[in-house]
Design a protein that fits this description.
Radius of gyration: 17 Å
Order of helices and strands: EEEEEEEEEEEE
Shape: globular
Largest sheet: 7 strands, antiparallel
Number of helices: 0
Length: 137
């Protein structure tokens, strides 16, 4: 589906998709054509001009109910690594998520958030990204 734009009109949300279709989001419908919608969001590519790795992120998120969220990082526009999971509560509070080691050292970094398909009112309010300098220009 690859959502690429959002539009709000008359209390409805319309999602423009990479396949050329415009879909209307209905809170009362949990599926679209018998296929669950997996909500994901990725940061834009982050380039600091030197080799770094993402050390940790601090997430401010909430959901009424649902499963665990996944947080994964990618380096130099490569594939995403193994996701670190966290299940937010109903109140947005800061949660620190640490990525271990210098895995993912590169000039360009990115974080992807994957929310559960059964999440209810999943909200990502803010995410802070912390980098570790790994040397190299």
């Amino acid at each position: 589906m690859n959502p690429c734009s959002l539009e709000y009109a008359e209390r409805d949300m319309y999602v423009g998709c990479g396949d050329g279709l415009i879909r209307r989001f209905l809170a009362s419908a949990s599926q679209d054509g018998s296929t669950n919608f997996t909500p994901t969001w990725a940061t834009p590519p982050i380039a600091l001009g030197r080799k770094v790795c993402i050390d940790r992120i601090v997430v401010y998120a909430s959901q009424t109910s649902g499963g665990a969220w996944g947080f994964a990082k990618a380096t130099d526009l490569g594939s995403y690594g193994t996701a670190v999971t966290y299940t937010p509560g109903t109140t947005p509070t800061a949660r620190s998520i640490t990525f271990t080691g210098n895995v993912g050292t590169g000039y360009i970094q990115q974080v992807r958030v994957t929310m559960p398909t059964n999440g209810v009112r999943s909200k990502l309010f803010k995410m802070r990204v912390f980098f570790k300098d790994t040397g190299g220009a």
